[in-house]
Write the structure tokens for this entry.
Amino acid sequence: MCLAVPLRISSVDGVNAVGEVEGIKRNIRIDFLNDVKIGDYVIVHAGFAIEKLNAVQAEENLDSILEVARIAQSGV
């Protein structure tokens, strides 16, 4: 199973960028998207940003992922 995760862009250097969520930073590539800027939210899969999101979409997605993680940890 593969999972794409929303990250907020914290730095951009050509086609390389750093995205972060919950204090975790990841080096990613932004080759597939145009005009990615610091502060943008992107969906990242296998190290590549594949889609831009607005802040509301990103927060909803992150909330869902965190809820699944909480349930998995509780053993329900």
User: Anything to note?
Assistant: DSSP finds one helix and five strands in the chain. The chain has one domain: 5-74. Residues 5-74 form a domain with the SH3 type barrels. fold (CATH 2.30.30.140).
